[in-house]
Structures
1.
Amino acid sequence: QVQLVESGGGSVQPGGSLRLSCAASGIRFVINTMGWYRQAPGKQRELVATITSGDQTNYADSVKGRFTISRDNAKNTVYLQMNSLKPEDTAVYYCNGNIRPYEYWGQGTQVTVSS
């Protein structure tokens, strides 16, 4: 049984920070490309960041310089460090794992940035 479980979401003020975690089980984590996506109300789900099995990273332009994705293969966990948060970062954040032909999603964790 494959599970991706996100944690670390919450409410913060603009300029604040959060670190999201995604704990994976039931997959060979080390060979999967992992990613974070987000979906705000009324909007499409969008890519936030990805990290390959070789630790290559990719970020949406909107989060470059503010967010950092990382992985700890020994812990089967991927992280998203979010700094300098803005109200427009408010969304449900989803963890994603991908290794062809399979793709897995977590249930999401809410991030709210407001004054």
2.
Amino acid sequence: DVQLVESGGGSVQAGGSLKLSCTASGDTVNTYSMAWFRQEPGADREGVYALATDDTLMYAPFVKGRFTISKDVAKNTLYLQMNGLKRGDTAVYYCAAGFRYTASGSALDARRWNIWGQGTQVTVS
């Protein structure tokens, strides 16, 4: 089983940038499809960006032109580069693995993933 640990969150002003990291242990990032989700207090966990093992991408509309996903196999790490941050981006950001290929629906549906990191807080003011 893979374990995930997120880092890189913090507080930034609107228009600023952050780069989140998700380091995997117990397996390699190429073994699994992986994704980033975010969650505001009292809200459902929301899909941000998903990356399949064949490098197929899926992202939420609010991501376009602002966020990019990438991975470093040597460091066994997944990244989310976030530029042009807005106050609406404030949330806890989670890394996910364990995609259920046999299930139906979007890869941005949190119910299709079953391995999660602890989350990292992003606050935009």
3.
Amino acid sequence: QVQPVESGGGLAQAGGPLRLSCVASVGAFSMYSMAWFRQAPGKEREFVARITRVALGTYYAGYADSVKGRITISRHNAENTVYLQMNSQRHEEAAGYYCAAGLARDAGLLQGAGGYTYWGQGTQVTVSS
């Protein structure tokens, strides 16, 4: 299966920005819902953000409550790329960040791992003080 590939992880300063990228060479990329999840050591993987096509040229972006206002998900369909712009990073948000792609339409599935078929291997984000 096609595997999304993340990049951009690294060291972020507390309160500072960091942008992650994910390239997914799947057919009809623009029709896929794309999402970001994160998992810290010893904790379960959690949903961060997703972006879903709802009409031609129209996408819906949804976020976990904990990141609203600080994180923006976007996509560049011509390059099969989805981005996660993170602002005001917090120490507790250090984690492995994973990109996922899927064709599910149910909002509940799209906010959990069950809505996605393809997964990247993750990119690590650390936060310094």
4.
Amino acid sequence: QVQVRESGGGLVQAGGSLTLSCAASASVFRINALAWYRQAPGKQRELVAHITRGGTTNYRDFVKGRFTISRDNDKNMVYLQMDSLKPEDTAVYYCNTLGQTASWGQGTQVTVSS
């Protein structure tokens, strides 16, 4: 069974905004810390941000002040609001538990043009 499904990616101009959504299964959503990861071509997958069940958030320095992670516990959804996007944000974005215990989804492509 599919555990996560990402959506909302697309093409956006530098400086623009985009909001990603992740629909998670109940088993995944029960895990305390959920996270967004991204992988650019030729690069390793990297953690972007994570959020706990209680709403505590943590961000990597390269997105601080620009990205906002949130969750809706009633809908089993995790979101990533991305503002002030830069070309270097271009990547496939994935959601998972912080410990990467869920099966990886297909991700959603975010392309930021300059």
